[in-house]
Amino acid sequence: MSENKKPKILGMIVLAAISLFILSSAKVVNSAGETEGAAKIAVKPLAVFNYSLGANEQFSVNVTAFNAINLHGFRLRLTFDANLLECVAVQEGMLLQAFNSTVMTQTVNNTSGNIETSVNLTSPEAMASGNDTLLGLTFRVKNTGETAIHLDELELYDSVGSSLSHVTYDGYFNNKFIFDVTMPLALVCVTLVSIFLNQKTEGKLKSTLEGKELKAKDGALLVGLMVVMISVIAFLRQAVAPLMILFLFSYSMLLFMFTYIFSNKRWYLAILPPAIFVLPYIFFRTTDIWSEGLVNVYGVIFAILITLYIANLFSWKSTLIFTGLLTIVDIVMVLVTGWMVQAAEATAGLSLPVIVELPLIPLIVMGGGRLLRMGLGLGDFFFAGLLAIQTYKKYGKRFTLVCLATMTLSFSIFEAINLTYWKIPFPGTLMIICGWLPLATFRIIKDRKHINPV
Q1: Angle at 444 between CA 441 and CA 447, to 5 degrees
Q2: Per-residue pLDDT tens over the stretch 314-353
Q3: Bridge partners, 426 (sequence order)
Q4: Is residue 283 over pLDDT 60?
Q5: CATH of 39-164, one of 2.60.40.680, 3.40.50.1220, 3.40.1190.20, 3.40.630.30
């Protein structure tokens, strides 16, 4: 590869890889819609997952109002599973209590599992607006299981008794150990597809790239540039339009490049895949067609394409350095600085395929029919694919399949612990490499001893 071409290729790699690694972390998410123009009444936190909450342990939740306007009082009925929980305290929230002039009534029935309460301002003309709690609830755990904390009936009204529009978000409690088969299975399938397609496309891609490979310093430079870009996005996360343009351009270039290469450089065919991606994004990104299906389909496609492209530019040595540095950076930027999470939040409202979100299986249906989902950044799919492809080239099919099995097992264990105990964004690279590194280290040491016997 000539020196004048290498920077161009590296630039394309950086542009595509940055868009994938923006969400290089595993995170717990759930489906929940938003409605503009109406007060939002939610049980907060929306979900309580705590395996350590056994019998006689207690926890608290709030019924919280967001965007309340002209609220004079409310009446509500809340239900829960009486076999699992019992309510031991109901306290008035701060939104109306701040007026120091309220009347509150409450009835708690722990046999049938319901709470009925009302709070009113005593001053005829007083009304509250803003965001704050309506009620504070304390529950005692009786057994192990799951239950919705359901806002069964709710009425908000102003000083003349007129009802105020609102939407409700139920809560959910679960103290069971949680595991999932969906995301580990998706990780295995995407990685296997990447390995299979790499065998079919490697020759063409290497020919296009003139058989050159990135050196170790290039891999380190790539990680460094990714850190810079993620940091910039984290600090400039309000710049929505530039972010959207960056991602759309990166993905479109990736689709164009692959189609151009494998259509024997027919540019008029190469423009079709980018158009098939961009147009649905523009017209359907606010619909369920996109959010429940197409965004994940495109996410998987892009993860595979970038894996095929970059895997053919790395050697075994540069892969070890690149993945090691990337894991360290991922840990720091997710768990220490939080910049990776901030960058993820900056793109959350753009509906871009930067993360694959899948419902857990066994299904966990929370209050209001929300499904608990697991989200995995596209960079993590690429990370597993790169390790698998390079391992396949170095040690063959059988050892690669064993490594893939241990990577999946490691990911599954981390995921279960995260879902049950931590419930925070967690570095997906760490979840994956912990399953690959022990076997790879053992094999490297074994081969060295074979070459240099004592």
Answers
A1: 145
A2: 889 899 999 999 999 999 999 998 888 887 777 777 888 9
A3: 26
A4: yes
A5: 2.60.40.680
